[in-house]
Amino acid sequence: SVSFKAFHRHAEINAYLDELAAAYPSRVSVQVAGKSYENRDIKTITITNGDGKTGKNVIFLDAGIHAREWIAHAGALYVIHQLAENFAVNSDLLKNFDWVILPVVNPDGYEYSHTTTRMWRKTRKPISSACYGTDANRNFDFHWGEVGASSYSCSDTFKGETAFSEPETQLIRDLLLSLTGRGKFYLTLHSYGNYLLYPWGWTSALPSSWRDNDEVAQAGADAIKSATGTKYTVGSSTNVLYAAAGGSDDYAFGVANFPVSITMELPAGGTGFNPSTSQIEGFVSETWVGIKAMAQKVAEKY
Ligand code: 0X9
Ligand code: ZN
């Protein structure tokens, strides 16, 4: 079991995934998708309704591209908890889609943010003698490095020495490409600021199918607003925040052909990247309301 009254370390999260696969073998399976630079297992959990149908469309959700954004990891864990352990209530969400969830993209950074530097953002591969880590959300090979990314290895938004220089981004790339065709909704959890963002992140121009993305994001924002009153801002990444190329969202949409690709920036609770533990449950259950509404909208469209 898992609690939402504390932030969990990477090993605890992986143990929880394995516990679910053991408890619900007909519906839940865990895969070691690869290893981080420091050799930690990066696991995905696949949750189905157990009807045995293969080749269903897929919702792919990840969290923790940025190490310090702990509420995002907790949000992914809550989705896993709901789909796996509250199956009777949530079975509609698994009727036409399998869910593949990667709750800790960057475990080296996540652990480092627990043990050493709370505000660590990047991966942990050394670049120069002085500086470590690449911003995984600037490292994807789609307009890589063109805008909003640094060439300076000490920067928090360092784009990497090459596109896909990091094992962690290679792993998401391979998963996304393996799902091309079946993958209909890519959702990546970050914090903070209450945003639902869709492509593009590299240019202020909008893709031709932006309305589909807008509709899905708006459904999430509306559901959250009516459940808790919390306001989310909806729009393209560049137009709402800033232009920054090399993000996972643009790659999922532009290269892996996911028709809906959304970055969800969870709330801060007035404490930035570090909400108090008593705020976790409220934030992640509210996030789940939005994710359910978005998944339902995607199911209507694809
Ligand atoms: O800058 C980012 O990577 C994201 N914000 S955060 O505060 N979590 O770092 C926003 C990413 C939006 N998507 C793209 N720019 N592609
Ligand atoms: Zn982030």
Automatic annotation (TrEMBL):
Keyword field: Carboxypeptidase, Disulfide bond, Hydrolase, Metal-binding, Metalloprotease, Protease, Signal, Zinc
Keyword RNA-binding among UniProt keywords: no
Co-factor requirement: Zn(2+)
GO cellular component annotations of the record: extracellular space
Listed GO biological process terms: proteolysis
GO MF assignments: metallocarboxypeptidase activity; zinc ion binding
Domain of life: Eukaryota
Residues of the active site: E265 (proton donor/acceptor)
Annotated Peptidase M14 domain residues: 6-298
Similarity-based family: Belongs to the peptidase M14 family.
Protein's recorded name: Peptidase M14 domain-containing protein
The species this protein was found in: Drosophila yakuba
Residues of the full protein shown: 117 to 418 of 418
